[in-house]
Amino acid sequence: MDVASFVDSVRADVAGWDRAGGLPSAIVPTMATGGFLAADLPRRYGGADLGQRDLGEICASLGGVCSALRSLVTVQGMVAAALLRWGTGAQRAAWLPTLASGGNIAGFAATEEGAGSDLGAMSTTVQGHGDDVVVRGRKLWVSLGRLATVFLVFGRQDGLPVAVLVESDRPGVVVEPIADPLGLRAAQLANIRFEDVRVPAANLVAPAGFGLSHVAATAVDHGRHTVAWGCVGLAAACLEQAVQHTARRVQGGVRLADHQLVRAVLGRAYVATSGARQLCAHAARLREQRSPSATAETVVAKYAGAAAAASVSQDAVQLLGAAGCGPDNPVNRFFRDAKIMQIIEGSREVGELDIGEFALRTAGPDRTL
Amino acid sequence: MDIRQVSGDDITRQILEFLSAATGGTALAEDQDYIAEGLVNSIQAVELVTRVEQRFGIEVEVSDLDLDNFRTAGRIADFVRRKRAAAAPDTRDG
Ligand SMILES: Cc1cc2nc3c(=O)[nH]c(=O)nc-3n(C[C@H](O)[C@H](O)[C@H](O)COP(=O)(O)OP(=O)(O)OC[C@H]3O[C@@H](n4cnc5c(N)ncnc54)[C@H](O)[C@@H]3O)c2cc1C
């Protein structure tokens, strides 16, 4: 099934998933069969060798109907990207095909009580015990945490940042569902406690010291790209709702769209959405070229995507009036989900700092390297 | 410029230039431990790997992830030289 047919097939159900706070379990095999999971992996690992632009378009289509579905693709892609880049041959062979097939659902467990934007403050420990390591700590806000069969967990081993794969059925893994969040309500969010969970040392990804700067960074870089595209799809869906409503709704004998005030809002929303889409396309192109600036330009795309999603969804609710506040109206859900996008994968403020830093040095001498 | 023609000293100089720019214009020394001093964020760490790969025509693999290869500009340059020597056909074993 191509992504357009897939989103059409679920469009009528997604509001119910949001209300119920979860995705149906059959969705994972359906999405895997559609080739939407870890689709940019090479074919030898079960992927579709999809280009970054094509991956982005899938995320935009999903984001235009349900951010929880896009979130599933994002997290699966993040963990797959980290393993493809920094896993050993054995780890890649063991895990990657299962991520593409949906045989494993990944969770990304980085955030802690004391470590949000500043992951360096994390206190989860990973201690060596012979051929095993023991993981102890509590991770918060894990998307798909209730569905995940394996977590990529970040902690410290002898003080150094490490990344370790922890299967969810290991003794000591405790899943605490998060009920009623503001947005991404169907994304099965959970806090996860790791109570002295023993896993083979072979589950460590990359040597100690590289857990955050390389493993997490590679994963989050990939996640930012798919979130950015998902935001573009969300913003475009909101613009479409706003256009359809204001073109039909008549008050005081005038179509809403015939007010200049309304048209100006539609115009600005168009520019925000279209601009974000172009920045995403630019980032996708740089990623395909393996350009060194791809990481920074992906931050730019995610920042612009989240900003467009937040502003256009807010405009859509305003233009739809009470209709947009109704329980089953999509802009109601898009508005709540869009706010989340300015917090996750690098908050708006952290993005601004990173982009400002990039601006400072790209005008400088690094152009020679 | 052909990457094969980049001389050993050029490698160190170019890495120092990138690191200095990445760390807000700090004049870094060849043996300064920019990681321990927390001068590089994770976006820059990923970028540094890609830059070194693209600029010097090598591939950084998981087996190369050794803090000793990356701590200082001088060590990165040594690492690049080793990788390039290992990849050059005339110096390959057997
Ligand atoms: C729905 C949802 C899903 C999530 N999924 C995952 C997941 O799957 N895995 C995971 O590990 N985490 C996940 N998270 C957590 C998310 O990554 C964090 O919320 C995010 O990193 C921000 O951290 P924080 O919430 O602790 O906010 P803080 O870091 O405490 O920030 C709070 C506010 O302060 C601002 N701020 C922080 N630092 C600075 C600064 N230097 N300068 C200026 N302003 C600053 C921020 O921009 C923000 O507005 C999820 C969160 C949500 C809401």
From TrEMBL, chain A:
Domain Acyl-CoA dehydrogenase/oxidase C-terminal: where?
214-357
Query: What InterPro entries would the database entry show?
Result: Acyl-CoA_Oxase/DH_mid-dom, Acyl-CoA_Oxase/DH_mid-dom_sf, AcylCo_DH-like_C, AcylCo_DH/oxidase_C, AcylCoA_DH/ox_N, AcylCoA_DH/ox_N_sf, AcylCoA_DH/oxidase_NM_dom_sf
The segment(s) forming the Acyl-CoA dehydrogenase/oxidase N-terminal domain are 4-102
Pfam families in UniProt: Acyl-CoA_dh_1 (PF00441), Acyl-CoA_dh_M (PF02770), Acyl-CoA_dh_N (PF02771)
Q: Which residue numbers delimit the Acyl-CoA oxidase/dehydrogenase middle domain?
A: 107-197
Q: Which UniProt keywords apply?
A: FAD, Flavoprotein, Oxidoreductase
The protein's required cofactor(s) are namely: FAD
Q: Which family does it belong to?
A: Belongs to the acyl-CoA dehydrogenase family.
Which protein, by its recorded name, is this? Answer: Acyl-CoA dehydrogenase family protein
Which species is this record about? Plantactinospora alkalitolerans
TrEMBL record, chain B:
What InterPro entries does UniProt report for this protein, alphabetically?
Answer: ACP-like_sf, PP-bd_ACP
Source organism superkingdom: Bacteria
SUPFAM superfamilies noted in UniProt: ACP-like
Which residue ranges does the record assign to the Carrier domain?
A: 6-84
UniProt name for this protein: Acyl carrier protein
Organism of this sequence: Plantactinospora alkalitolerans
